[in-house]
Design goal:
With 1430 residues, the chain is an all-alpha fold.
């Protein structure tokens, strides 16, 4: 009212003054046209001097206001109403702008008259109306403040009629109106009024126009409550889902980013943008272009406000659900900003790797449900798909992120750990980091020409700079690009040449791999081929053997690649090759393979004078050439013949110059010429040669499958014929010559270390040569008639005996249990394998070159001999049996022992699934053939041993049989291991079960020795599972029963290992059946061997599905406590429940149970970390997605509580035992880790500041109670007794060290317990539930070792009670320890489940205090001598 009086007061003198001035007509009303003309008359240009406007008396009088407002209505009714009204209002503002009193009196009525005209659409909504509203907004401060709320109400009431952007022009008045309200003193509680206005806006229905306009103007409104801001953003993002046109989205997002810098929560804005564009929205390519524009807006906003970038990174770090294709693109866009370059890429890589790690953990964690495992799998798949989608859409207006994609792709490749890629199975549907990175960079290479040079250059840089194990993924990427896009890669041939220039400086496996992957390009580009050959020529002259080794392999691969074309197959023996050089799609435009071989033959000749490892690579490479094309045969023979004749003397008594194959090197002896590999190469090529003709010798016969016939051209002897004749002569010589003649006469000069080493090296070479001859004989045996079979078998036996004699001259042990020593040597094709694995160290030791059919034939011969010997022994009398034992049984045992050792060493060649080279199978044969003979031998040896046990045979015979069984089981274990982890041999166990001659024997044995009623292999539809269970039922169970009865403990241990391997491949419900059988064995088998007992218990526990595994562990821990004894009971000699637990085995079994407890704690640690993420999302009010790791958080929590409760029960038995020092220390470390996880769990139950506190669940309360009662209280007694026993024992240096070590464990354990109970105190205070009612009051520990005097002990009052703290003191102390954590009250909300325990506490213990805190002082427990203090 005062303001109105002030504004009208000056107008009255003006009116009087006007009445004193004639003429009278000036006081008459003026028309609207006259007013407009008057305003135009007084309008002056900017350059002229402004002159004050003298208003006519009509305008100075308030009585003119109705007339002036009527002109507004009349102009609104005109034809061009919008421009007419705008012109009229502009004239009024122009005339009254210099007269505030007139303006303030007229403006409220004018505005309130104009707004109904605008909202009723009597005035068109165009740019004239917009300029008018803007003019009103400029002069709003002249309006009386009490009129502002009325204006605001008119605007809000009009919102539901807003249909297009012109209708929303009126909203430009709203920010200024609200600002005037905020600064006014006349409106009561202006801030509350503003918030109520915004609430009114939120309650209205928004059209898309209103949404866009409100986002634009809300930034000018200050003092809005944070909750209202959050609600406003939520309504905006919800409205964006359906109402907003695609072309409006970039501008809207830009305005939202402006809001983030104007006080709105940045995380909410970023999360809303990410959720909207990362969801399922339609629009096709247009929407992808819109997203590209949005990414540019965000990039610009982050440059202006770096805190927005931190929010983007924090969003992904805290919530993996936010990682969708748009988030990936957003991170890549933010990475273009220098300060976020590394961090944005790092966050994306970490999120992907964490998803892989989480799934890998969930997959092997037995106590997670299948639903949870599937959720983690889906989470990893979602992230992979998001990355691929973001990369595939990179050409839709977002080319600025291409460099970031390149950086991210190579970052993934650098993160690949070589050798760990098999963790992600293809059956899981996951690509893994390497394949994902390859797909990312491949897509980029295909779409963006500008990225190709960068990708090739980055490949070059990383290949030359990274370590070998990290450089292989980059080389594989380069090879993939070269194979798929050869011509675009050749456009950057300069980079490829630069990489080849560093060939001699690279690691051996890197350099050879590089040439291999470039072979598709070398085949189609003559310049690159010539340059590669030049590089390899230079490498052959380097001093480093590793460089020459790599160059030799590269030359062979180059020749192979130039020979093969797109449609070539690997000769007739193999469909395809795994090597990149053997299946290239490009055609050869210049030289053929044979021509290149001739061209490079001089360079290959140099290889024949290199180290033995280089020669081995050459020999195996020549075999591959013949496999690819038989036309290479004569060229290869001509190449090798002069070299072979250096070591073959046709007319000499000893045709092999073995002494020339070794030399002295650096004071030692090494093999210079791998003659056995050379002869293996020659024999294999002769076998592969389709037509090899030669003069037929009278007694020559077929040699390794090739025949010798008359050559048509008389007088011409081919190289192949020379080799055939040489092999025939060497074979005859080996059959007839003694060992000393072959090992040369140098051994006559006396035994010296050098001579002994020479003898050993020559014996190794002769072993390989004998194996080559055995291959030839076995090949002939398969095709021989009945007349020749006996002769060939006799020759085979002679060579095996000769082989056994040669093994005695070697010094490397057999792979046995230590009972008998023999020879175990590295693999025959170690040169090729070492080249693949990076080892270039030449070796003078080799494993057998025997082919699988040869070993199989030897096994069958040994089995037949063993069967004949057993039958003969069984039919003989007691005296005759004793005689035959020394004469017939020993040779057969030696034969079988040698064959089994050979078999084991050969299986090691196939025991690496990641190096599954098809050449191995082609050259050596199928290892599945070995399964049936091995199993038959084991059963035969078992039956023979059983007979000898019953007939009280000599101990030596039984030990011999035991060693053979052990060797056979080792081979069988290795064979099953290969079959379970390589898809190539999946049918092996099926072959073992269906092997003829075994089924009846195993069933017969099973009927007498099965000790339980487990229904294995019954009621199963899955044939694969049934076969595995049948094998356990028909073979493992009866054999294990017998071996335990025989006290064959090492053999029983191997059977346990086999059962564990097979059992882990069974489904969960079927795996439990095997575990039940293992438990029954533990209950009924009285075993004194600790290793076997450990294997049996481990089998029973590991195959039991949770929670059964910890239940079994509880039962065994209870029995262990009886056997080990405690303070309350004397130890027993043997458990009454589990016969396997006794004084001899208790320590080993205790270690198994403690290891299970430790592995469970490791799983708990991972689960608690996942629950932390779940609780964070829940407290933020984020709803769980339908398929995500957060949907089952409560289920995971209950599972964790039940698992921890079972673990408490297991550990409670151990703290009551009398344990030895190492196990006691191990127990303390496990307990400390367990309490650390309990503290983390308790901390999760405490709500964060500002969040609602939920009462702890009944499962959690039960866990706390059991832990306090059964573990915490007894563990203090355990520590006290352990320390007292140390003090009472004799002092020694070793004991002092143990005390020091354990005194590091005890403080950590006490700290973790007190930290756990600190959170229990806080949770008890907040929830009013006494969680520590069962806690034990402990002593205050300063961990100082004190030696109390006798006087001090006498002065101490034994009945003194420790000082007690009430609940308030404890809480105060707890708050100080936790670093002054928040103590304000939070609202408690009762959990859905009923809580009678909490109700009882709240009613009966209102004034009760919690148990006393553990800060009271007691007498010292830890004591130490004066020596230790010094």
């Amino acid at each position: 009212m005062s303001r109105a009086t002030a504004t009208t007061a000056p107008s009255k003198p003006s009116s009087a003054t006007a009445n004193n001035h004639p003429p009278q007509p000036q006081s008459s009303p003026m028309t609207d046209v006259e007013l407009v003309q008057l305003a135009q008359l007084h309008h002056r240009p900017i350059s002229s001097q402004p002159t004050p406007v003298h208003l006519p008396p009509f305008l100075l009088s308030e009585s003119s206001h109705p007339t002036l407002l009527s002109y507004l209505d009349s102009r609104a009714a005109s034809v061009n109403s919008s421009s007419a009204v705008a012109e009229y209002i502009s004239a009024l503002f122009s005339l009254t702008s210099h007269h505030p009193s007139v303006l303030s009196a007229l403006l409220p009525s004018l505005l309130l008259s104009y707004l109904p005209l605008f909202t009723s659409r009597k005035i068109p909504h165009d740019h004239h109306s917009l300029s008018t509203l803007q003019l009103f907004a400029v002069h709003l401060d002249a309006i009386e403040i009490t009129k502002i709320p009325e204006t605001i109400n008119l605007i809000i009431m009009y919102l539901h009629d807003v249909k297009d952007f012109e209708d929303a022009h009126v909203l430009v008045l709203l920010p200024k109106c609200l600002e005037l309200v905020r600064i006014s003193n006349e409106i009561e509680k202006p801030i509350e009024y503003i918030n109520s206005v915004i609430d009114g806006l939120l309650n209205c229905e928004w059209s898309k126009v209103v949404l866009v306009k409100l986002v634009e103007i809300i930034r000018d409104v200050s003092c809005i409550d944070k909750g209202i801001k959050r609600d406003f953003l939520e309504k905006v993002f919800n409205g964006m889902q359906n109402n907003i046109e695609m072309q409006d989205l970039p501008g809207l997002v830009y305005q939202l980013l402006v809001l983030a810098s104007k006080g709105f929560n940045k995380r909410d804005v970023i999360e809303g943008i990410v959720s909207f564009f990362g969801g399922k929205i339609k629009g096709g390519s247009i929407m992808r272009q819109v997203e590209g524009t949005v990414l540019l807006h965000v990039n610009f906003a982050v440059k202006q406000d770096p805190s927005l970038g931190q929010e983007v990174l924090g969003l992904v770090r805290s919530d993996s659900r936010a990682l969708n294709h748009f988030t990936v693109a957003l991170l890549l866009s933010v990475a273009r900003i220098r300060r976020f370059s590394e961090s944005a890429i790092g966050v994306l890589r970490t999120a992907l790797f964490n998803a892989y790690k989480d799934y890998n953990f969930a997959k092997v964690c037995k106590w997670l449900s299948d639903e949870l495992k599937e959720e983690y799998l889906q989470n990893a798949r979602v992230i992979e798909k998001a990355v691929l989608k973001a990369v595939n859409e990179s050409h839709y207006g977002r080319e600025h992120i291409v460099p970031s994609i390149v950086q991210f792709g190579f970052g993934l490749l650098e993160g690949v750990e070589e050798g760990n890629q098999k963790k992600l199975s293809k059956s899981d549907g996951l690509m893994g980091s390497e394949e994902l990175a390859t797909q990312v960079l491949k897509s980029l290479f295909e779409v963006h020409d500008m990225a190709r040079n960068e990708i090739i250059e980055q490949c070059k840089f990383r290949i030359l700079s990274l370590k070998p194990e990290r450089g292989h993924p980059v080389i594989r990427l380069l090879g993939y690009l070269a194979l798929i896009h050869p011509h675009p890669v050749l456009d950057h041939v300069s980079h490829l040449k630069e990489m080849l220039d560093y060939f001699t400086f690279m690691h051996g496996k890197i350099s050879s791999h590089l040439v291999t992957v470039l072979l598709p390009l070398i085949k189609i580009n003559r310049i690159l081929q010539d340059y590669t050959i030049l590089v390899l020529r230079k490498a052959m002259f380097r001093r480093e053997s590793s460089v020459r080794l790599a160059a030799t392999g590269a030359i062979i691969d180059l020749i192979l690649a130039c020979k093969q074309s797109k449609g070539d197959r690997l000769f007739s023996f193999q469909e395809s090759s795994s090597q990149a050089s053997c299946s290239q799609p490009a055609e050869i435009h210049h030289a053929t393979g044979a021509g290149l071989f001739e061209e490079l033959s001089g360079l290959l000749q140099r290889c024949l004078y290199q180290q033995a490892s280089v020669r081995e690579v050459l020999y195996h490479g020549l075999v591959k050439l013949v496999l690819v094309d038989h036309l290479f045969v004569e060229a290869v023979f001509d190449f090798l013949l002069p070299h072979f004749l250096r070591f073959y003397r046709e007319d000499a008594d000893v045709p092999l110059a073995i002494d020339l194959c070794t030399k002295l090197d650096s004071g030692g002896v090494c093999i210079e010429e791998p003659l056995d590999c050379l002869m293996f190469c020659i024999s294999l090529i002769l076998f592969l040669q389709p037509h090899c003709r030669s003069d037929t010798l009278p007694d020559s016969g077929a040699c390794f499958g090739f025949s010798i016939t008359q050559e048509n051209e008389a007088g011409k002897v081919l190289s192949g014929e020379s080799f055939s004749n040489a092999l025939v002569k060497i074979r005859k010589f080996l059959r007839n010559e003694n060992l000393e003649g072959l090992l040369c006469k140098s051994q006559n000069s006396g035994s010296t270390p050098i001579e002994d080493e020479k003898l050993r090296c020559r014996a190794i070479l002769l072993l390989g040569i004998v194996e080559v001859m055995l291959n030839i004989i076995v090949t002939e045996l398969e095709k021989a008639t009945e007349v020749n079979k006996m002769e060939l078998e006799s020759e085979l036996s002679i060579l095996v005996g000769f082989y056994e004699s040669l093994e005695k001259h070697t010094s490397i042990s057999r792979p046995s249990n230590g009972i008998r020593r023999g020879t175990v040597r590295p693999t025959a094709s170690d040169a090729a394998d070492r080249l693949a694995s990076g080892s270039t160290k030449p070796s003078s030791e080799r494993t057998p070159l025997l082919a699988i059919p040869s070993i199989c034939q030897l096994l069958k011969m040994a089995l037949e001999s063993l069967t004949r010997d057993s039958s003969r022994t069984g039919a003989a009398s007691q005296n005759q049996m004793q005689l035959s034992t020394g004469e017939a049984s020993a040779p057969n045992s030696e034969l079988l022992s040698s064959v089994l050792n050979i078999c084991f060493r050969q299986l090691k060649l196939f025991s690496f699934p990641d190096k599954d080279d098809p050449w191995k199978t082609l050259i050596y044969g199928d290892i599945k053939l070995l399964g049936s003979p091995l199993l038959k031998i084991i059963w035969c040896l078992k039956s023979d041993t059983d007979k000898k046990k019953k007939e009280a045979e000599g101990r030596k015979d039984i030990e011999d049989r035991r060693e053979l069984i052990h060797l056979g089981l080792l081979c069988l274990k290795k064979l099953i291991e290969i079959s379970l982890y390589s898809l190539k041999y999946v049918g092996l166990i099926d072959d073992l079960v269906s092997s003829p001659g075994l089924e009846q024997e195993s069933i017969h044995s099973m009927e007498f020795h099965c000790i339980d009623g487990c229904k294995l292999a019954e009621g199963i539809d899955d044939q694969n599972t049934r076969i595995k269970e049948l094998f356990i039922k028909m073979n493992i169970k009866p054999l294990l029963t017998k071996f335990l009865a025989f006290s064959f403990f090492h053999e029983a241990q191997i059977l346990c290992d086999i059962t564990a391997m097979i059992g882990n491949k069974l489904p969960e419900e079927r795996r439990n059946l095997v575990a039940m059988w293992a438990i029954s064995v533990c209950k009924n088998s009285d075993v004194s061997n600790s290793k076997v007992a450990k294997s049996l218990v481990s089998l029973a526990v590991s195959l039991s599905s949770p929670p059964g595994d910890l239940l079994v562990a509880q039962e065994m821990a209870a029995e262990l406590s009886k056997v080990k004894g405690s303070d309350d009971s004397d130890p027993l000699e043997k458990s009454e429940t589990f016969s396997v637990i006794n004084k001899s085995t208790d320590d080993a079994i205790a270690s198994i149970v403690l290891q299970l407890a430790e592995s469970t704690i490791v799983d708990m640690d991972w689960i608690v970390a996942r629950l932390n993420t779940y609780h964070t999302a829940t407290r933020k009010g984020i709803p769980p997605r339908q398929m995500g790791i957060f949907a089952s958080g409560s289920v995971l929590e209950d599972t964790l509580y039940s698992r921890a409760e079972a673990l408490v029960k297991v550990l409670s038995f151990f703290v009551a035992m009398t344990l030895k020092d190492p196990q006691a220390e191990y127990l303390l470390r496990i307990a400390a880790k367990f309490y650390k996880n309990l503290a983390r769990i308790s901390k999760l139950c405490i709500a964060s500041k500002g969040c609602k506190q939920v009462l702890p669940s009944l499962n959690y309360q039960k866990l706390v109670e059991i832990t306090c009662r059964q573990l915490t209280a007894p563990i203090y007694n355990f520590v006290s007794q352990m320390q007292q026993s140390q003090q009472e024992s004799n002092k020694s240096r070793g004991l002092v060290n143990k005390i020091k070590r354990e005194n590091r464990c005890i403080p950590d354990l006490i700290f973790q317990i007190e930290d756990y109970e600190k959170y229990l105190i806080q949770l008890s205070k907040i929830t009013k539930i006494n969680l520590l009612r069962h806690a034990k009051r402990s002593t205050s520990r300063d961990f100082k070792i004190v030696e109390p005097s006798e006087d001090a002990l006498e002065d101490d009052n034994p009945n003194q009670e420790p000082e007690n703290y009430n609940i308030n003191d404890a809480e105060s102390e707890s708050s100080k320890e936790s670093g002054n954590e928040e103590t304000e009250e939070t609202e408690c909300v009762r959990a859905p489940e009923s809580n009678p325990l909490a109700a009882e506490d709240s009613e009966s213990e209102d004034d009760a205090t919690l148990p006393k805190t553990k800060r009271a002082k007691m007498g010292s427990i830890v004591h130490e001598s004066s020596d230790e203090e010094a």
